[in-house]
Hints:
Largest sheet: 8 strands, antiparallel
Helix content: 25-40%
Structural class: alpha+beta
Strand order of the largest sheet: 2-3-4-5-1-8-10-9
Strand content: 15-25%
Shape: globular
Distance between the termini: 58 Å
Amino acid sequence: MSGEFPEIKSAHSLVAKHVTKEKWDKLKDIQTKTCGFTLAKACACAIEFDNQHCGIYAGDWDSYKVFADVFDPLIQEYHGIAADSTHTSDMDASKIKGTIDPTAPVHSTRIRVGRNIDGFGLSPGITKDQRIGVENLMKKAFANLSGDLAGTYYPLTGMDEKVRQQLVDDHFLFMSGDPNLKVAGMERDWPEGRGIFHNKDKTFLTWVNEEDQLRIISMQSGGDVRAVFDRLARGIKAVEDSVKKESGRDFMLDPKYGFIHACPTNLGTGMRASVHVDLPGWTKAGSKTLSERCEALHLQPRGTRGESGGQTGITYDISNKHRLGYSEVQLVQKMIDGVNTLVKEDRELQKKLGV
């Protein structure tokens, strides 16, 4: 989709800053090898909507290389990394020190990562055949999981209504209709090639072909972050080994950008480690005060209805802010230490503010 330099509606986005006319003219006619992805497709959200902060997606691993003139400076700015930095992964749960205070009012803990398998496109660019190829490979790979990780794969196509309702009740189902994902090209051929795997205990889940080929999730009630991380690490390794055994393929792992994801904001660990915790003191102090405190602790507060759901009541979703430039162990440690700090301060605020 070549053509003249587009009007970028998200005028304050990173795309508006880093996609100059000069870069556009240089790159606009290039198509990537894996999926035939273009710069125009990559920037579709920033061009179409006026509310994007980042505004760009990769359609395959090649996109990061072929359109590096745009992606490299944008990623460096977003993640605050140097041009020559490299990324190191560390999933060794035994290195985590301490855990969340057992008396803290934590409802649940959830850690997710994204993973994508080399040789297939990423969600915004993946072809129909590649998407079905990923799903078929994962059906075989899931069948090899054993012990507490063993479970069932539920394809979205032809899903039984009772199964669908149960997945909705468990908050496991991902839906179509997100305007960003649509414009970015991630909902083409919906719901074909997509599905959800979970173990018997519903503590280990994998989403297939949503925003990334794989979203691997470990979760449970309460605040035992180390147990959740340990299961996640074992689960990722089991899925990775199984994929390798079935296909000879590896996860996309870049020395500079870590695990490759469709959205550049997820590069690196692609990990979001979060707890749902009651913070009545901070609620009284105000969301701006809490946001500033979280910023200092390298954490991100959200309402418990997800990224754009807003806040209701006193329960917050608190997670690590960074993805790239820190290892998984470092990010989980920051989350544990930060949540302990917030809870301790929350108790002091409750006394002070008379909650």
